[in-house]
Specification:
The chain is an alpha/beta fold. The protein contains 10 helices and 12 strands. The radius of gyration is 20 Å and the shape is globular. The protein starts with 5 loop residues before the first strand and ends in a 5-residue tail after the last strand. Bound molecules: adenosine-5'-triphosphate (ATP) and magnesium ion. The site of magnesium ion has 4 residues, from helix 1.
Length: 265
């Protein structure tokens, strides 16, 4: 079997001054998998993704990426960090936090420039990715003055330009119109079929269904309560209700108990 992309070995994690968020959490992610990470607000999805991205570190246990332990000290080595971020691309929940250049073109070129590629190679890569994502018309615009969906697309371009093996996305369809959501879903399916590992945190069960084979579910008290086929999880109404991913209430029609996910229209 090939080396897992990520392995969490009995990790604990807490934010400074807070109580443990995770405790004794173990998890393995195989190369080429497509995973949705599900859970209610505050369940710990973004925190777990940040751990995969090397932005926060376990307070106990170990995290391995591509078979090698990831520690704060290792990622402080800028050469190591550059290589790591070339292999693991991520798209934040808030793309605004991710954009810091004054031109879209420069934003997308930032990662390749950091890798020390020649300017001709950087230009080819950036132009190719902007064309692939149909963003050429935005190349000279300021990322700050784009719409939310356009910003998200630029963040996607900035991640994909490095051709990462693993793509980590935090609530990627938030604020996207239906066509743009469809565009993103098609793109993620295509990347996964090319062997890329895709890990997506979301509340959007339709998105989870469309793009993932495996679901990992965190409860509101941050426990891993499900790890298995997403089809099965998404059909399990009592599980989804228990973890606050769907809301169900019971009332009576005549003599019969009657359950709805949502209220009557
Ligand atoms: N920087 C931080 N410092 C302290 N506590 C934090 C920090 N970031 C998140 N938390 C807390 O950790 C918990 C998990 O937060 P996290 O952002 O991982 O949840 P989430 O599942 O991504 O939620 P959402 O669905 O709202 O995005 C929450 O209780 C949150 O308040
Ligand atoms: Mg989050």
């Amino acid at each position: 079997m090939s080396t897992p992309v990520f392995t969490l070995e009995r990790i604990a994690f807490r934010y400074p001054g807070a109580e443990n968020l995770f405790q004794d959490l173990s998890l393995e992610i195989a190369a080429g998998d497509s995973i949705c990470l599900l859970g209610a607000n505050g369940s710990g999805k973004s925190t777990l993704l940040k751990m995969f991205c090397g932005l926060v570190f376990p307070s106990a246990g170990r995290i391995l990426a591509f078979g090698q332990e990831i520690t704060e000290a290792r990622l402080e080595d800028s050469g190591f960090a550059r290589q790591y971020h070339r292999r693991v691309g991520f798209i934040f929940q808030n793309s605004e936090a991710q954009l810091f250049n004054t031109r879209v073109w420069d934003e997308v070129a930032y990662g390749p420039n950091q890798l020390g590629l020649s300017s001709a190679e950087v230009k080819t890569r950036v132009d190719d990715i902007l064309t692939m994502l149909n963003l050429q018309s935005l190349a000279d615009r300021s990322p700050y003055r784009l719409s939310g969906g356009e910003k998200k697309k630029v963040a996607v371009a900035a991640a994909l330009v490095l051709n990462p093996e693993v793509l980590i996305l935090d609530e990627p369809t938030n604020g996207l119109d239906p066509k743009t959501q469809r565009w993103l879903i098609e793109l993620l399916l295509q990347l996964n079929s090319m062997g890329r590992t895709i890990i997506t945190a979301t509340h959007n069960l339709d998105l989870a269904h469309a793009i993932s084979r495996r679901a990992i579910i965190l409860s509101e008290d941050h426990q891993l309560v499900y790890d298995g086929p997403s089809d099965q999880a998404l059909e399990d109404k009592s599980l989804l209700t228990a973890v606050n991913l769907i809301e169900e209430y019971t009332h009576r029609h005549g003599e019969q108990d009657h359950k709805h996910r949502y209220t009557h229209g």
